[in-house]
């Protein structure tokens, strides 16, 4: 599942608390700075054009993004698609053990090697992301 921490602070604090540990013994997150490194730009657009292979969903994405890129050639950050792909194929990222925290409504994380509940993605393998995005077997 994807989750925007800023959108529901009380829910996030509940999920991160000790009382939710039994139901959620391990939580994997993709940091915002990692998400911002994955952009649907002209390069990805060209890659997708070469890899549609009769896929209706990829064709729809390509058509929608073709119109989007004409208005915003810098591209679109792919927060949710990246988070969804990581949920299905976690090996596209590398992780650090960290503990999330909130100070005055701003989320962050602190490295915490001694815990094993929270894994926060610190890098993404762009080639593997592209393959997963285009439904290629990894």
Walk me through the structure:
- With 138 residues, the chain is α+β, with helices and mostly antiparallel strands.
- It is 41% helix and 23% strand.
- The protein has helices at 9-16, 32-35, 42-51, 56-71, 79-88, 126-133, and strands at residues 27-30, 39-40, 76-77, 93-103, 106-111, 118-124.
- The strands form two sheets. A four-stranded mixed sheet has the order 1-6-4-5.
- Strand 4 and strand 5 form a beta hairpin.
- Helix 3 (42-51) runs antiparallel to helix 4 (56-71).
- The protein is elongated, with a radius of gyration of 17 Å.
- 14% of the residues are buried.
- The model has no long low-confidence stretch (mean pLDDT 89).
Largest sheet: 4 strands, mixed
Instruction: Work out the helicity level.
Output: 40-55%
Count, helices? 6
* Poorly predicted parts: none
> Structural class, please?
alpha+beta
Q: Strands of the largest sheet, in order across it?
A: 1-6-4-5
Q: Write down the Rg.
A: 17 Å
- For the secondary structure, the number of strands is 6
Question: Which strand-content bin applies to the residues?
Answer: 15-25%
What is the terminal-to-terminal distance? 21 Å
Order of helical and strand elements = HEHEHHEHEEEH
Q: Short description, anyone?
A:
The chain has 138 residues and is an alpha+beta fold. 41% of the residues lie in helices and 23% in strands. The protein is built from 6 helices and 6 strands; from the N terminus they run H-E-H-E-H-H-E-H-E-E-E-H.
What is the strand and helix layout of this fold?
Blueprint (H helix, E strand, L loop, with lengths): L8 H8 L10 E4 L1 H4 L3 E2 L1 H10 L4 H16 L4 E2 L1 H10 L4 E11 L2 E6 L6 E7 L1 H8 L5
Parallel strand pairs: 1-6
Antiparallel strand pairs: 2-3, 4-5, 4-6
